[in-house]
C-alpha cells in the first residue's frame, strides 16, 4: 500500500496541509471531522464527478458522524458563472449552515474555484476543504487560494483569495479522468519543473509514460512533487507581486491560443504550445541553449501534447495577447527560461521576435 505524503503550505496567516494518498477518499471522514467544529459539512460537486464519487465521500462523512448538505452544478467551464451559484447559496442557507460549517469542493478546478468562492462569501466566509479530482486541480488549483467565477467579459473576473484549511488528493480518482484532461494536467507539471526544478525535469522525462499509464505510485509522487513546487512559489509571493508570475510560463501565448481557437485547444494544450513559443524566444535571445530547448519540446511531446501544427492566424494570437490582463503598461510580459529549472521575466521583447515565435508554432 502506498503511504502517500503530506505537503505543508506555509502561509503566514493560514498554513495548511495537502495530503496525497491513493484510497484516501474512503477514509477521509475522521480527518475532516477532526478539523471541523460543526457537525454539518456542505459538499459541492459537478454532474460528472458526483455520480462517480459522491457515494464514497458521503459514506466516509457519515461514518465520522458528519451530516452532509449536498449541492451539484452541471459539469464544465460553461457553468462557472454566478447564475449556477445562486441555487447553491439557497441550499446552504436553507440548510442553516453555520460560520463553522466547512464547504468541501469535490471536483476539478471549476468546482474548486466555485466552491471556494462560495466558502469565501457565504456568511462572510466559512472554512474551505478541497478534494481535487483532476490532475490539474491537484497540482495547480489546490495551491494558492484563488477562487472565482467567470463573467461575460472574461474568465475568473469575479473572485477572492480564500485559503483552504486542508486539501485531500486521492490519485486513484484519476483513473476515471478523460485522457485529454490527464495530459492537460501534465502540461502544468512540465511548467513547474521548467521554472523551478532541473532534477524534477529529468525525473519527469524518465517517468512521464508511467503517469500516462496511471501508475498510482508515480502519480502520488508526481502530485506531491508539484504541489510542493507551487507551494514554495506561493509562499514566497502570496499576492502575486513578484515571482509568482513565473507560474505564467507558457501562459502568455497559452491564454491567447486558447481564446483564439475558441477553446478548440484545451488550457493544457494551449499552454503546451505556449511553452514551446517561450523556449523558442529563450533560445533566440541567447538565454537557453538549443539542447535544453529540445529536451523541453521533447517532454511536451512525450506527454501527448501539441508542439507544432497550430492553424491559428498569428496576428490574431498577438492581438489577443495584447488584450490579456497581464499586459503591463502596454508591454507584453513573458516568462522565459535561462536554463531548465530557472525562469526570468522579460517585459519588452522585440515585436518581430514575438511574431516569429508564434509563426514557428505553425510548422
Ligand atoms: N484557483 C486556481 O489557482 C486555478 C489554477 C488553475 C486552474 N484553475 C481553474 O480550473 C478550471 C479548470 O479545471 P479542470 O481542468 O480541473 O476542469 P474541470 O473542473 O472542468 O474538470 C474537467 C472535466 O473533468 C471532469 N472530471 C473531474 N474529475 C473527474 C474524475 N476524477 N473522473 C472523471 N471526470 C472527472 C469534470 O466533470 C469536467 O467535465 C478553470 O476554470 C481554471 O480557471 C484555477
Ligand atoms: Zn494553467
Distance between the termini: 46 Å
| Poorly predicted segments | none
CATH domain class of the largest domain: Mainly Alpha
Number of domains: 2
Shape: globular
Query: Which ligands occur here?
Result: nicotinamide-adenine-dinucleotide, zinc ion
Notes on the structure:
The protein has helices spanning about 30-35, 50-65, 80-95, 110-120, 135-140, 180-195, 200-210, 215-235, 250-260, 265-285, 290-300, 315-325, 350-360, and strands at about 5-10, 15-20, 40-45, 65-75, 105, 130, 145-150, 155-160, 165-170, 335-340, 340-345. By secondary structure, the protein is of the alpha/beta class. Strands 1-2-9-6-5-3-4 form a 7-stranded mixed sheet, sandwiched between helices. A two-stranded antiparallel ribbon has the order 7-8. A hairpin with a 6-residue loop joins strand 1 and strand 2. The protein is globular and about 60 Å long. The model has no long low-confidence stretch (mean pLDDT about 95).
What brief labels describe this structure?
363 residues, alpha/beta, Rossmann fold, Dehydroquinate synthase-like, alpha domain, 2 domains, two-stranded antiparallel sheet, 13 helices, 47% helix, 17% strand, globular, binds nicotinamide-adenine-dinucleotide, binds zinc ion
Amino acid at each position: 500500500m502506498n503511504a502517500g505524503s503530506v505537503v505543508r503550505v506555509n502561509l503566514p496567516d493560514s498554513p495548511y496541509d495537502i495530503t496525497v494518498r491513493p484510497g484516501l477518499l474512503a477514509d477521509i471522514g475522521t480527518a475532516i471531522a477532526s478539523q471541523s467544529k460543526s457537525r454539518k459539512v456542505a459538499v459541492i460537486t459537478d454532474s460528472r464527478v458526483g455520480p462517480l464519487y459522491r457515494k464514497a465521500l458521503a459514506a466516509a462523512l457519515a461514518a465520522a458522524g458528519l451530516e452532509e448538505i449536498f449541492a451539484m452544478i452541471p459539469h464544465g467551464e460553461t457553468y462557472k458563472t454566478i447564475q449556477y451559484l445562486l441555487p447553491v447559496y439557497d441550499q446552504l442557507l436553507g440548510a442553516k449552515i453555520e460560520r463553522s460549517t466547512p464547504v468541501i469542493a469535490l471536483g476539478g478546478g471549476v468546482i474548486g474555484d466555485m466552491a471556494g468562492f462560495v466558502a469565501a462569501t457565504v456568511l462572510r466566509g466559512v472554512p474551505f476543504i478541497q478534494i481535487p479530482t483532476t490532475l490539474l486541480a491537484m497540482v495547480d488549483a489546490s495551491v494558492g487560494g484563488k477562487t472565482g467565477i467567470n463573467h461575460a467579459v472574461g474568465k475568473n473576473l469575479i473572485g477572492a483569495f480564500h485559503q483552504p484549511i486542508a486539501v485531500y488528493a486521492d490519485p486513484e480518482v484519476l483513473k476515471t479522468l478523460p485522457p485529454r484532461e490527464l495530459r492537460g494536467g501534465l502540461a502544468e507539471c512540465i511548467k513547474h519543473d521548467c521554472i523551478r526544478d532541473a532534477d524534477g525535469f529529468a525525473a519527469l522525462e524518465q517517468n512521464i509514460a508511467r503517469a500516462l499509464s496511471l501508475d498510482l505510485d508515480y502519480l502520488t509522487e508526481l502530485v506531491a512533487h508539484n504541489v510542493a513546487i507551487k507551494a514554495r512559489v506561493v509562499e514566497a509571493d502570496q499576492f502575486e507581486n513578484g515571482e509568482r508570475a513565473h507560474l505564467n510560463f507558457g501562459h502568455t501565448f497559452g491564454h491567447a491560443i486558447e481564446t483564439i481557437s475558441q477553446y478548440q485547444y484545451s488550457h493544457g494544450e494551449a499552454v503546451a504550445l505556449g511553452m514551446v513559443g517561450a523556449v523558442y524566444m529563450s533560445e533566440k535571445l541567447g538565454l537557453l541553449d538549443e539542447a535544453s530547448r529540445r529536451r523541453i519540446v521533447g517532454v511536451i511531446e512525450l506527454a501527448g501534447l501539441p508542439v507544432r501544427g497550430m492553424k491559428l492566424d498569428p496576428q490574431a494570437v498577438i492581438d489577443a495577447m495584447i488584450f490579456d490582463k497581464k499586459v503591463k503598461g502596454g508591454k507584453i510580459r513573458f516568462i522565459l527560461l535561462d536554463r531548465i529549472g530557472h525562469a526570468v521575466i522579460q517585459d519588452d521583447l522585440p515585436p518581430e521576435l514575438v511574431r516569429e515565435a508564434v509563426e514557428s508554432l505553425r510548422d
